[in-house]
Specification:
By secondary structure, the protein is an alpha/beta fold. Strand 1, helix 2 and strand 2 form a beta-alpha-beta unit.
Length: 253
């Protein structure tokens, strides 16, 4: 990591810890794949996380392969139904372009939640992007969905959530209202599991970053972070602060 990147990381941590008045020197472009699922809630979380860090973050909505023109600094693959996501994006060429973008550099920051984790572990063609195997809907049907504390092993502070106005990524949809009760205590995170997948095997190339009841529910490999739960459905934005911080470090060179 360069001296400039290290200085940026220290500055971001100080802003979070002390809520220092921010200096918004750069804008981080976060690509949000509009495939399916809680994509609008991810947009809301990014805006809040950027406010907590004191940086500018531009949400770049990705619906077609052409939307990647101009570049992005990081990518979010939202939850949803992975098979439907593959079919829905096929005629626009989006998913293929996203895989190309991720494969170009394994250090590029990517956050995949629920079905997004499936897309990274089980691409329709080519090798997986993560050294892990995953099983769809392994916790059961919708009625088996639940919320539970998740142990987190990622170096991101817990802070009071920034208050922001509702964010919309189109003219028809506004994010769900997220309760401020959904805030972790530093060691745990309020994990929301909705028809969640499960990691069936974890390779040596990955780092475990989240566990529920002793089971791995979050892994990191290079810049790719895969979670089987939905962090965007809580007011604890530490995973979104993580991806913005990683993007800021890379943007600084």
């Amino acid at each position: 990591m360069s001296a400039t990147a290290s200085a940026i990381l220290v500055a971001l941590k100080r802003r979070v810890e002390g809520r220092v008045a921010p200096r918004r020197a750069m804008s981080i472009r976060i690509g949000l794949a509009m495939l399916q699922g809680a994509r609008h809630e991810h947009a809301q979380a990014i805006v809040g996380a950027a406010e907590e860090l004191g940086v500018d973050a531009e949400i770049k909505v990705l619906r077609t392969s052409g939307d990647l023109d101009g570049g992005i600094d990081a990518l979010i693959l939202p939850g949803g139904e992975s098979t439907t996501m593959r079919i829905a994006s096929r005629h626009q060429g989006l998913l293929e372009s996203l895989y190309e973008w991720m494969n170009d550099d394994p250090q590029r920051p990517v956050l995949g939640t629920c079905a997004g984790a499936i897309l990274m572990c089980s691409p329709p063609s080519g090798p997986p992007l993560l050294d892990a195997e995953i099983s769809r809907n392994a916790w059961g049907r919708q009625a088996k969905s639940f919320q539970a504390p998740v142990a987190v092993f990622l170096d991101v502070e817990v802070v009071p959530p920034a208050v922001i106005t509702s964010v919309s990524t189109d003219n028809a949809h506004h994010p769900l209202v997220v309760s401020s009760d959904g805030l972790g205590d530093g060691e745990t995170f309020p994990g929301v599991f909705i028809r969640a997948p499960r990691f069936s095997s974890i390779g040596t190339g990955t780092t475990v970053v989240a566990e529920f009841d002793g089971e791995v529910v979050g892994i990191l490999q290079g810049g790719r972070l895969a979670l089987t739960f939905h962090p965007e459905l809580t007011s604890d934005r530490r995973f979104h602060r993580w991806i913005i911080s990683q993007a800021a470090i890379r943007a600084a060179g």
